[in-house]
Amino acid sequence: MNTPSRAEPDPGLEDLLGFIRDARGFDFTGYKRSTLGRRIRKRMIDAGIPD
Length: 51
Description:
This protein is mainly alpha-helical. It is about 55% helix and about 0% strand. The chain is globular, with a radius of gyration of 13 Å. Mean pLDDT is about 85; it is low at about 1-5.
């Protein structure tokens, strides 16, 4: 069985993080992508944003 050691980068998440960095100056380079994605999805659900 061939399982990747790391998850593939999510282009949508990377685009969002780039936008936040450029627009607001927040750099999330040192953060785990899985954690950021999970937290963003939770906030989207809480706000009723489906996509």
